[in-house]
């Protein structure tokens, strides 16, 4: 319904624009230059007035009408539903919606999750729901038509020679531009609020400190063990996130200890040693490495690297898990190399040539210059690059989902399987789920931890650069 | 640095300085090669990655089809979709492989043809009704393991033509084989080798098991945590059972290795030896230098063959370790010899949606899903991103609000993608109750994720337009909006488009946030619109990578090649755009 209205409004806007422009030309008559604003601004003016109010109304309607109707239907049946808990009411509502959507078909054919009396009740409610929905839609159509007509008449009467419609249209455009840049802020607010709200609900079920400092993580047993001891006790025992943090740290550490030396040395060679020809080939190739989707790295890790590491381990008599932290860490390191390289390349290039020249003039070799002059000068930038790389590694998902383990072992042995924060978020949320269980809410708590850690790393990285950057100009 | 120079001026003689210089130059070279080495290692990783993908992926682009003489006389041309094609295919298989006549053999023969063959035949007949009512040679896909064998990816055979005459005691059943020369000796040596390598492999595994067993025993004895003790006890029992099983196997192998008698029994844990003699196949069960015992798989026409007229087929991979038995090898080889097998472009892979059967799975559903998702992403992120960039670069006053937006956009660019997935789940699915698994929601999430990339790139492009353009426009009486939209924006467009394409390429390869909003659903149908449940290419890759069937491994790599192909195409367009429209002011 709303999609259709939006399409119609788009057509209305085009027609109104054309009418407005034509009207402006008629009003001006022979002397077009007597118009304050050019005709197309009058067209835009009319289009704005005839469509924007109706557009806003339809958006609000789309967002809230269903909720409103549902609560009114539930209100009508509140007596019968008084014995239901939240989950049952949700199921009931889902059935009502399914039934209402399938009104044309025979009601007894529709597959529902409830049976018997409740089913009959749902059918009754569905009738009410459908009738309310259709009357709501009728009301919306009437309102939209009214707003379009009223806006059109209002705007049409204001197309006059001396009217400064350009100012209005330009203000409107600026407003839209501001609104678009606010989307970025809205996204952040959305992230923060959705994470915090769900996390608060999680922490009502599992104490905050038990989550952050618990040693045992096995959310799969959240339901099996619910029968035995009391629920709160149990949840606080199985949602201890320390093993995940240690696993994340371990894999990140392995990744950085591969990516940092390789990326940094590559950047040094690229900026100070490589010939122009070499650079013009190697740079794009490194960009290819950076552009490969992480799911491809994950496949590579699971298919090639993990079995290879396992094979080498067995050859020298070590028992290596087939989902070892080492495999995931190594591949993640490979993924981050170009990231570290391009960031430190920028930093090293921004060290002024005069510093190098000064060092050469003192008789230092190239490597001495790099080690004792260029790198110390570029240090804040390099530290910041490494921090950003750590933040990338911590938040990386697909490689670890495909190559690291699921079981939360508390170990720092890189040959064993560990699990990470991102892996657990994916495992908790993929597949069938009801939204209110501690299991799914735990994913949001983990997401919050992840968001806070990466945010801190990014902000800290920026601060390092700002605070310790040497000014040469 | 200052203190070192002092000492060295005082004390160094010419000799010492020379040696010091040598050292410094050596370290200079070392440093340089270290840098070069780092780059080469990184490039080596890239090559390794691409080789893994291409090596695994290439075979999946073709598939083997078997030509079956199917009796379609009973099909009504008016209603070709109504006939029982399963039955037709079944009898056609029996006709094509008559030498597999007992029940077990028939089942084996049917297993060599894809389970989707009947549907495939039906579609072919419905597409070309003239086939109905007559006998037709129809090509249907073989099973995935037969395909792997034909591509040399499982049960790889070694064929030799031994220099000896052969005599087989009978044309079918259990037979004795006698040779005129001891050509089996070489094979026997290989069998012995297999036995001892198998034994040493078992030995290492036993040692590893013993280690973890000791470990678990220690936990069971000393740990305070009751949960840990319980799980340790469980694993102790299973480990002990495993260890005992290995021990028996190991002992048996040692006995066989030490047995110096030349005769060796070939069970399923040993390499296989098939003899292709006189139009049939004999599978060897016991072997000695010049004679052997065997079992006829495909009946022989002649009992004798002279040197060079028969073939020995060795398969070193033990039969129990592969999913393609010796009998199947023999039958497929026979079909190849009869010219019934054809390897051609795998059209199913490009035309079909997902399936649990590797030979019936295709990427078209995922490609269409990716297309819809990208359309939504582009439609949202491009206008939003460009508008935001224009405001921030051209109109925004320097105040707190704009600086907050700027910091915010930079931070948003570094937020892990999975967090955007959580946002989509909480806001789009649970709050606005949009449909799960739909390209609409996927596109919205990816749009939010690519927004910072597009804003940053667009701002850089706008900044690169020199101020003289704006001033000239303002000078002839344009308003600020007119100056930007009529003059600055068109000049910045190539840069903006380049940034957008790069952002879209990122979005096309993104997987994690889409897992959160349910795009992992197993969707067989090709989606028809943005509200239909769908999956996208990278998610399809993730799902296939998880499937245990080896056929899917090739499919996954092939799908990755398709994805990388799209990405390279997009990046190439971006580079071309930049080259073509790049202007230096």
Keyword list:
heterodimer, A: 473 residues, mainly alpha, MetI-like fold, 3 domains, flat, B: 585 residues, alpha+beta, 4 domains, nine-stranded antiparallel β-sheet, three-stranded antiparallel β-sheet, extended
Describe this structure in words.
The complex is a heterodimer of chains A (473) and B (585). Chain A has 473 residues and is mainly alpha-helical. Chain A has 3 domains: 2-163, no CATH class; 206-236, no CATH class; 241-468, Orthogonal Bundle (MetI-like fold), CATH 1.10.3720. Chain A has 17 helices and no strands. In chain A, 42% of the residues are buried. Chain B is α+β, with helices and mostly antiparallel strands and 585 residues long. Chain B has 4 domains: 2-53; 60-150, no CATH class; 157-321, no CATH class; 358-581, MetI-like (MetI-like fold). Chain B is built from 19 helices and 12 strands. Chain B has helices spanning 2-11, 14-57, 85-96, 103-111, 117-127, 144-150, 184-222, 226-258, 326-337, 347-351, 364-395, 400-413, 417-431, 439-464, 467-475, 480-508, 512-516, 537-546, 550-581, and strands spanning 62-71, 135-141, 157-160, 166-168, 174-179, 264-265, 272-277, 280-287, 291-298, 304-305, 311-315, 341-345. In chain B, helix 7 packs antiparallel against helix 8 and helix 11 (364-395) runs antiparallel to helix 16. The chains are: A mainly alpha (473), B alpha+beta (585). At the A-B interface, helix 6, helix 9, helix 10, helix 11 and helix 12 of A face helix 2, helix 7, helix 11, helix 12 and helix 13 of B.
In summary, what is this structure?
The complex is a heterodimer of chains A (473) and B (585). Chain A is mainly α and 473 residues long.
Number of domains of chain A: 3
CATH class of the largest domain in chain B: Mainly Alpha
The second-level CATH architecture of the largest domain in chain A is Orthogonal Bundle
Name the overall outline of chain B.
extended
CATH topology of the largest domain in chain A: MetI-like fold
Radius of gyration of chain A: 32 Å
Look at the structure and give the mean pLDDT of chain B: 86
Q: Mean of the pLDDT scores of chain A?
A: 85
- By DSSP, the count of extended strands of chain B is 12
Strand content of chain B is 5-15%
What string, H for helix and E for strand, traces the elements of chain A in order? Answer: HHHHHHHHHHHHHHHHH
Shape of chain A: flat
Q: What is the assigned CATH homologous superfamily of the largest domain in chain B? A: MetI-like
Number of helices of chain A: 17
How large, in whole angstroms, is the Cα Rg of chain B?
34 Å
Q: What is the CATH class designation of the largest domain in chain A? A: Mainly Alpha
Q: Please, what is the CATH homologous superfamily of the largest domain in chain A?
A: MetI-like
Within the CATH hierarchy, at the fold level, what is the topology of the largest domain in chain B? MetI-like fold
Second-tier CATH architecture of the largest domain in chain B: Orthogonal Bundle
Bin the strand percentage of chain A. under 5%
């Amino acid at each position: 319904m709303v999609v259709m209205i939006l399409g119609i409004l788009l057509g209305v806007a085009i027609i109104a624009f054309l009418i407005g422009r034509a009207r402006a030309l008629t009003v001006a008559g022979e002397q077009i230059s007597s118009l304050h604003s050019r005709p197309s601004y009058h067209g835009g003016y009319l289009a704005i007035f005839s469509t924007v109010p109706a557009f806003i109304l339809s958006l609000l309607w789309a967002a809230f009408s269903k909720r409103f109707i549902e609560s009114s239907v539930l209100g009508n049946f509140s007596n019968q539903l008084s014995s239901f808990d939240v989950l049952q009411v949700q199921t009931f509502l889902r059935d009502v919606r399914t039934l209402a959507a399938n009104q044309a078909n025979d009601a007894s054919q529709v597959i529902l999750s409830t049976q018997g009396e409740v089913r009959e009740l749902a059918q009754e409610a569905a009738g009410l729901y459908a009738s309310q929905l259709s009357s709501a839609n009728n009301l919306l159509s009437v309102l939209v038509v009214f707003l379009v007509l009223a806006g059109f008449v209002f705007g049409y009467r204001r197309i006059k020679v001396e009217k400064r419609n350009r100012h209005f249209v330009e203000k409107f455009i600026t407003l839209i531009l501001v609104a678009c840049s606010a989307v970025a802020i809205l996204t952040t607010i959305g992230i923060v609020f959705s994470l915090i709200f769900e996390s608060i609900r999680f922490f009502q079920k599992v104490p905050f400190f038990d989550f952050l400092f618990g040693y045992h993580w096995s959310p799969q047993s959240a339901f099996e063990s619910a029968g035995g001891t009391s629920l709160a006790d149990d949840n606080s025992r199985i949602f201890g996130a320390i093993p995940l943090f240690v696993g994340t740290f371990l894999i990140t550490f392995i990744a950085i200890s591969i990516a940092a030396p390789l990326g940094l040395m590559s950047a040094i060679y690229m900026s100070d040693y490589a010939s122009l020809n070499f650079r013009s080939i190697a740079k794009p190739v490194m960009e290819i490495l950076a552009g490969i989707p992480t799911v491809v790295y994950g496949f590579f890790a699971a298919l090639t690297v993990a079995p290879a590491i396992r094979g080498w381990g067995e050859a020298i008599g070590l028992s290596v898990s087939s989902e070892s932290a080492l495999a995931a860490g190594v591949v993640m390191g490979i993924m981050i190399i170009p990231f570290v390289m391009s960031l430190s390349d920028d930093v090293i290039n921004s060290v002024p040539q005069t510093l190098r020249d000064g060092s050469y003039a003192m008789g230092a070799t190239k490597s001495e210059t790099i080690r004792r002059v260029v790198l110390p000068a570029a240090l804040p930038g390099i530290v910041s690059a490494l921090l950003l790389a750590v933040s990338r590694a911590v938040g990386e998902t697909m490689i670890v989902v495909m190559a690291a383990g699921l079981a939360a072992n508390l170990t720092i042995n890189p040959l064993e399987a560990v699990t990470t924060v991102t892996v657990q978020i994916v495992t908790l949320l993929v597949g069938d789920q009801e939204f209110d269980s501690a299991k799914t809410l735990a994913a949001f708590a983990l997401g919050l931890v992840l968001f806070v850690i990466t945010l801190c790393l990014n902000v800290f990285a920026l601060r390092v650069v700002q605070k310790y950057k040497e000014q040469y100009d | 640095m200052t203190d070192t120079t002092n000492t060295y001026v005082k004390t160094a003689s010419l000799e010492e300085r020379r040696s010091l210089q040598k050292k410094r130059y050596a370290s200079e070279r070392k440093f340089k090669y270290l840098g070069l080495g780092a780059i080469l290692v990184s490039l080596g990783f890239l090559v390794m990655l691409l080789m893994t993908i291409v090596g695994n992926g290439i075979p999946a682009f073709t598939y083997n089809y078997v030509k079956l003489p199917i009796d379609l006389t009973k099909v009504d041309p008016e209603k070709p979709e109504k006939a029982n094609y399963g039955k037709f295919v079944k009898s056609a298989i029996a006709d094509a492989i008559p030498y597999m006549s007992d029940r077990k053999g028939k089942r084996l023969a049917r297993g060599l043809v894809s389970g989707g063959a009947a549907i495939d035949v039906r579609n072919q007949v419905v597409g070309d009704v003239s086939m109905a009512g007559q006998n037709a040679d129809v090509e249907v896909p073989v099973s995935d393991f037969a395909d792997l064998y034909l591509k040399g990816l499982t049960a790889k055979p070694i064929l030799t033509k031994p220099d000896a005459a052969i005599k087989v005691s009978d044309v079918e059943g259990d037979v004795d084989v006698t040779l005129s020369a001891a050509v089996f000796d070489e094979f026997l040596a290989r069998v012995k080798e297999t036995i001892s390598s198998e034994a040493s492999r078992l030995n290492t595994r036993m040692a590893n098991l013993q280690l973890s067993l000791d470990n678990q025993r220690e936990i069971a004895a000393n740990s305070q945590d009751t949960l840990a003790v319980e799980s340790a006890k469980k694993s102790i029992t299973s480990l002990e059972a495993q260890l005992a099983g290995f021990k028996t196997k190991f002992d048996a192998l040692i006995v066989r290795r030490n047995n110096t008698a030349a005769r060796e029994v070939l069970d399923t844990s040993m390499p296989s030896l098939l003899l292709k003699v006189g139009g049939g196949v004999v599978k060897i069960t016991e072997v000695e230098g010049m004679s052997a015992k065997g079992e006829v798989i495909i009946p022989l026409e002649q009992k004798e063959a002279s040197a060079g007229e028969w073939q020995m087929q060795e398969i070193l991979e033990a039969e129990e370790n592969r999913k393609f038995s010796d009998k199947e090898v023999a039958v497929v080889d026979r079909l190849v010899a009869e010219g019934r097998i054809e390897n051609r472009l795998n059209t199913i892979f490009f035309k079909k949606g997902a399936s649990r059967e590797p030979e019936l799975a295709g990427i078209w559903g995922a490609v269409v899903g990716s297309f819809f998702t990208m359309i939504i992403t582009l439609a949202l992120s491009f206008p939003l991103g460009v508008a935001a960039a224009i405001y921030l670069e051209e109109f925004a006053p320097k105040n707190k609000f704009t600086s907050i937006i700027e910091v915010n956009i930079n931070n948003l660019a570094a937020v892990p993608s999975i967090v955007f997935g959580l946002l989509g789940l909480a806001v789009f699915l649970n709050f606005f109750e949009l449909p799960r698994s739909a390209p609409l929601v996927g596109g919205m999430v990816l749009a939010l994720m690519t927004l910072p990339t597009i804003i940053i790139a667009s701002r850089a492009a706008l900044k690169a337009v020199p101020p003289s353009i704006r001033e000239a426009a303002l000078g002839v009486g344009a308003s600020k909006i007119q100056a930007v939209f009529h003059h600055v924006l068109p000049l910045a467009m190539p840069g903006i488009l380049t940034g957008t394409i790069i952002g879209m390429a990122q979005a096309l390869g993104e997987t994690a946030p889409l897992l959160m909003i349910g795009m992992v659903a197993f969707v067989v149908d090709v989606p028809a619109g943005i509200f239909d449940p769908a999956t996208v290419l990278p998610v399809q890759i993730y799902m296939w990578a998880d499937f245990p069937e080896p056929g899917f491994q090739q499919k996954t790599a092939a799908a990755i090649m398709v994805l990388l192909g799209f990405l390279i195409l997009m990046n190439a367009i971006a580079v071309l755009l930049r080259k073509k429209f790049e202007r230096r002011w």
